[in-house]
Structures are given as C-alpha cells and as structure tokens.
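Forwarding the complex inputs:
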Amino acid sequence: MAKEGVDMTEETEYMIDRNAGKEAVNVESPSNAKEMRAVVLAGFGGLNKLRVTKKAMPEPQDGEVKIRVKACGLNFLDLMVRQGNIDNPPKPPLVPGFECCGIVESVAENTQGFEIGDRVMAFLNYNAWAEVVCTPVDFVYKMPDDMTFTEAAAFSLNFVAAYMMLFEVASLREGMSVLVHSAGGAVGQAVAQLCSTVPNVTVFGIASCFKHTSIKDSVTHLFDRNTDYIQEVKKISPDGVDIVLDCLCGENTGKSLSLLKPLGTYILYGASNMVTGETKSFFSFAKSWWQVEKVNPIKLYEENKVIAGFSLLNLLFKQGGCNLVKSAMDKLLSLYEQKKIRPVVDSLWALEEVKEAMQRIHDRGNIGKLILDVEKSPTPL
Amino acid sequence: MAKEGVDMTEETEYMIDRNAGKEAVNVESPSNAKEMRAVVLAGFGGLNKLRVTKKAMPEPQDGEVKIRVKACGLNFLDLMVRQGNIDNPPKPPLVPGFECCGIVESVAENTQGFEIGDRVMAFLNYNAWAEVVCTPVDFVYKMPDDMTFTEAAAFSLNFVAAYMMLFEVASLREGMSVLVHSAGGAVGQAVAQLCSTVPNVTVFGIASCFKHTSIKDSVTHLFDRNTDYIQEVKKISPDGVDIVLDCLCGENTGKSLSLLKPLGTYILYGASNMVTGETKSFFSFAKSWWQVEKVNPIKLYEENKVIAGFSLLNLLFKQGGCNLVKSAMDKLLSLYEQKKIRPVVDSLWALEEVKEAMQRIHDRGNIGKLILDVEKSPTPL
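Prediction (whole assembly, two chains):
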C-alpha cells in the first residue's frame, strides 16, 4: 500500500500514537472509567492532523444509549472531512466517524427499545471513532444474532445508501440496468449485491484494473476506469442504462447523463474527485461547486431524464429522515437474514492505524470496506 | 372569452376559413374522396397563420392504420408550435396536433392488432388536426366501449403524461403529497384524479382565482397563483411536499425545488411561461433556455432532491418509448373502466374555430381539455 505524503514527522507522531494505543488497551473495559480513547482530528489538513488521544467519557442524555464500541466504518467522506473539504465543516478539534457498532453499556431516561447488552449498530453525526459513543436511539439498530461486529461496521452506511438510491430514489425493477462507478468500493459492492436480489438486472461496474480479478463475479460487465467506458457500455446496451450511481462527480456527471435511457436516473452520492492529494487542493469544495457542470431543467425535459443527489448523512442529521432510514434498514436486515446480502470487508485497522487506513482508501486500494477495530492492537512495524 | 390580439384582418380571414369549413362539411364522408380538410399552419407566428384547407388524402404505409378522425386534443404545446417556440421545430406549412381519436378506416399490410371499424385513439408526431390521419400502430390504442370520442380526445396525452410522471418518474405512494401548478388544466385535472386512486394523498393545486369554484373539489388545498403559495403550502405542510409537477418553468423551478421534502421529486413537463403574447416574444425558447435557473448536482446531493423532466412526445417520437407508454395506457384504461378516472372536457370547437380555441388556452381560460370536434360546424357568430 502506498504511503505517499506520509513523511518522517508523521511517522514519529504515529509511533507516539501507537504507544498511546497500547497503553489504552490496558486500561480498557472498566465501565466506571472516566476516560476513553478516540481518534481526534486536531485541524483540517493531512494525515498528521490525526492522532489517538484520551477524551472524557461521554454520558448518554435523555433518549440516548451509551455504546461500548467494537468497530467503526471508514468512508471516503472521512478523508474529505479531514481536509475540511465539505460544506459547512464543524470546527476542529473533533472526533471523526459516522458509523460504528458495539454493545449497549447504559441507557438514559426516556430511552425506549434498547437494553444493556444489546448488540447494536449506529449512525453518528461525527464522534464514531471512539471506544465509547452516545447517540439518540433514532440512529441505533439492533444487529442480527449471526452478524459479526466487523460485518456490522461494514453494513449500515453503505447498504442503507445503496438500498435507498436503488429502491427509493430510483425504482429498480426487473430487467433494468445499473452503472456503478467505483464498483470495487464498499457502496459499489453493496449495490452489486442488492441488484442481484432483483431478477434480470444488468450491472455495469467501473473499477481500476487491479481490482478486476477480485470483483468480476459481483457485476455483469466490468470496465477499467481508464478506458472509454461510455463506448464500451453502448456496445453492449445501445439504448444506455436505467440507473447511474456516481460518487466521483466532475466530468463523470455529463458522461453519465449521456448514458441514461429515457426516464433513466442519474444519482450523485459523493464527490470523491474533489480529493486529489493528501491535503485540500486547489480543486477544493468551493471550486468544485462551480466547476461541476450544472444541469438545465429544460434539457432534462427534452431528454426525459432524472438527476438526483443522495447524502445519507444529511438525510439523517439535517433533514429528519431517520424514519425513512429505519424502514430501509429493516428491509436490509431481512435480506441479510435471508443470506441475500453480506458486506465485503477489505481490511481491519487499529485506531492507531487510522492514517494508513485513510491512505489506502485515498489510493483507492480497497475492495469493500475498511474497518477500524477498536480492540485491535496495531500491527508491529 | 378574451380575444386580445385577434385583429380585424384575422377576423376577415376567419370568415373565409369558416366558409371553407362549411363547404368541407358537405363533402365529408365518402371514403374514396381524394381530399380531406385539415388545419394548416402556414408559418410560425400569430393566430392568423392558421387556416382550414383541403389536403391530399393520406394513405397508410406498412404497419400503419388510416383513421377517420372524430375529435382531436388541443394542448398548450400547440401554441408553442404555432409560435415556433420549441426546440428544432419542423418546417411549415404543417398540420399541427399530437393526438386524436376516431374509427379505423383501412389497415395497411403488415399491420396487426387492428381492424376496420375499431374505435381508437392515437398519438401523432404532428398531423393530428385533420379529418383523416395515418399512423403506425405503435401509437394507436383501442377505446373502451363506453368511452365517447370527446372523452378519448381528452384522455390520451394528459392522462398518460400524468400517470407516467406520478408513477414512473416519481413513485407516488400512500400518504404522499403532490403540488400541481395549473391545477385547472387538463393535465392538472388528470393528476388530481390519479392522486385520488392512491390512499391518503394530499394534493396542493395552484390555479387562477376564477377557476377555484369549479375545481375546488378535485384537490385537497387550492391556492391562487398570485398569492405566496410557497408560504401557504408550508403553513399546512412545514416539511414540504413529495412531488411537484410544473408546466410553467421559469421562476417556479427554484421556488418549487425549495418546497420539496428530502427525497422529493420536482418534474418539469412544460414551459408555458415562455409564451407571453400571441406571437413569439423576446422571452422566446432560446432565451428561456439560458434564463432558466440551472441546477448544480452537488446542491441536489446536499439537499437529497430529485429533478426530472418529462416530455411524452419526445419519449414517443424521438426516444422509442412506445412500449413504456403502452404499458401506462393499459393501466389507465383499466382505471377508466373501473370508473376511477374520467377526463374533464372544457369545450368543443370546430376545426374552423381553432383560433378561438387557442386564444382560450392562451388566456388560461380553460378548465380541463379543449377538443377540436371534426364533425362540428362552427357556431354562428
């Protein structure tokens, strides 16, 4: 795995973190502890802004549960947060992370539906990368008995996003076709699995060449990101595709719209092309906003096309969508229990290894999900 | 009914047309006739560009049926065609009109599914406003036995458009809310009726004040176009609405987007605001294209919104969507036979009265559909 941009200064700091981690492992568990370990982002910037430190133990407020975290999900969005490359970023220092799973350790007053000892997964509006989190029960879901914590940390965000895009924003039905950019990523793999639950759906995946052997069985057709995939798709399906899922933004938007069949839907669910280097680039959020090709509604009218955006975190934390998400999660857990879907895990990392994990996702080296395993000790150098 | 813009020159010409019409009525019917009456648009412009003349009798080609027309639908789009205010307009002289109904008079070779005498409705890519039309069977549908020709001419375009927007582009479900601009128009009334086939759907209608008494029972809430309807809707539904259907374009686009709930869908299906006077205005198609507020996909991403365009005629005649339309028509005919929907007819006009009919739709004076009744004689002045 590449380590571009990780200089010696960082490496030294990393060693310090690593020791902090080991120390922390030793003090873990006592539920009356006053402190916990967490990944902290000291300021927006490169990997050197991340460290593992002790923080005051959080306590649940009315309507919240306190969760002893076992594993957390790492998403591309976490890189954009680190760079401050998002709209209205919160003020650092902050604890990153939007999803985790673990065991309910305590339950505040006016909190219904959960008991101490429940195995749960949860969405958080930041603060997920810690040994302990507190969050309102609206964002907490019980894990199936046979789901591991690793699976749970890989499940919630990616499968809910994939499900809602395919079935709520678009209306995936028998016989349709779907193009997914970043087919090797965690959302891409979730999309591929969910498509396979509907009869006769054709999935066109775009992925870097080196992932093809690993993921070729998950999609119908696989194309290299560097080929003229628009032409390749049109060779197979001259009329285009019904649904395009794009987490890249940028020039892919126009290309993808041109691939849509009449009544087809293009969904933008991320903008990872905005991240070009380890630190926030000239091609940053504000710039990108203006550089992205805007869409004229009259063009959509003439072409009978649909363009949509999907941000699960905004839906959950800014737009009051927790009931919609709960309903999607219920359907997904049923599919999981029927063994129709199963999260693909790329790799497990200790909290102290968050920088290497981020570098791996930055380099698009992953196939499936990167997990921060809170109980894992850093792998010796 | 207002007659603004109809000057004396036109009135004189109209009298000539009227006589032509009367003469034509006398020669109607013989199926071996070499000529037929049709409305002809001599060039793009005002009402004076329209006249009723004789044209050579069309004969069906392979895969086509020849239909003795009983009635035709008049749509706002026909005004835009008259002004040349559409993208890539065909070269005049031309016969306008996109829909009609009548009786199959002959069937060409390689034409399956229809017999002489069948009562049918049909979409045409122009040429509908005539005594006889020929069209491929892909665009022809059998009428239910108890449907009148007047109903049929009011049915196809508006109900298919309303159905596909509500159920194919958006996914109207129980408990949702729909805002429809031009609630008193033919599409607006079709939307209202289709919404009533789904439990617990709230319909917000926008219409000119003078229509309110007539249409108030068709929608849940009705607002005057000139009030601040955005605020009025928000008073009733603070979270906004699930679906907005807009045939106006212009400033309504931004306003309507702001009214959408998360995961809500805005559908543009017309741009009637582009028509401001009797002739093509400064605010014409090319101008409008640039004046319409363009949408940034990243904004859709942040807000979890969907924006779509729907043009039934492009779908049918440019994008090969006749199977999609056939499927919608089948469902609509079933709803009609269950007496769940019934087209609202505003008024019937002789071919020779097409100018007055167009003026009425231009002035937004209609409630429901304007029909050209081919067998009707002009009402004496």
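The longest helix of chain B spans residues 149-169.
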